Amino acid sequence: MTLELASLPLAALAGALSILSPCVWPLVPVVMASAAASGRSGPWFLALGLAGSFAVAGTILTLLLLNLGLNPDAYRVVAAVLLLLVGATLLSKSLGDWLGVQHSRLTGGMAGSGGGANSAAGQLGVGALLGLVWLPCVGP
User: Fold this and answer.
1) What is the dihedral of CA 104, 108, 111, 113, to 10 degrees?
2) Per-residue pLDDT at 47 exceeds 80
């Protein structure tokens, strides 16, 4: 039991230090400035969404990989291919525009319910998405 209790502060320290990851550090000021523009509670809701989705997605992904006997290296290859595909959309304006239109159609019904990105719910949603996006970057 004492080993489990000692793990909690170490896990919190590891999470705090993961901000120093090279793919995360440059984005923190931009993301926090955007959240702060939505009010005093914006950064708190952003952090809550990010931490929650990061923890839940990381736990579920780890359990799936372990229980299905999948090779974690294969997951990294799939993630790298997906990252390259997303990057390719930035090289082609027409493809990027088309995907933007498709995304707008898909999420159009959700825009009115949350109050936009400047609301608390909007910042919670942005944080949840960032947690998923940063999972491969700072995850083990």
Assistant:
1) -160
2) yes
> Roughly what angle, to the nearest 10 degrees, separates helices 42-67 and 120-138?
40
Distances in Å between the Cα of 16 and the Cα atoms of 20, 47, 59, 64, 85 are 8, 12, 18, 25, 30
Contact 15, 22 (CB under 8 A): no
Q: What is the pLDDT of residues 26-41, one digit of tens each?
A: 667 767 777 777 788 8
Contact 42, 120 (CB under 8 A): yes
Residues 6 or more apart from 121 whose CB is under 8 A from it? Answer: 45, 114, 115
Q: How far apart are CA 56 and CA 51, in angstroms?
A: 9
